[in-house]
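The record is given unchanged here:
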Amino acid sequence: MASAKTAKAVEALSALAHEGRLSVFRLLVRAGPEGLAAGDIARKLDVLPNTLSANLTVLAGAGLVSSRRDGRSIIYKADYDRMAGLLNFLIEDCCNGDASICAP
């Protein structure tokens, strides 16, 4: 049986394994902690609002993005702690535990 850590990693990787969702997540990572309004994301990526909404729902369910209301807009931002946790999970066993080999 998979550990909780493994299950969370699989959920995040599954969410990112879709071209549209990956594009949304990467855009939000670039946007920084301020995030972006849903309408801005849709315009920048040239996606339909309903498609964007579905992608954001999956990313939020995986804990990769969060949202807040700002007036009439909903602002989305990447969860950097969750992203860092996923990256650490992926390299924690790198080269028999010597993660320094995997470091940039």
About this structure: The beta strands are 36-37, 65-70, 73-78. Helices lie at 4-16, 19-31, 38-45, 49-61, 80-91. The mean pLDDT is 92. Residues 65 and 78 are 4 Å apart (CA to CA).
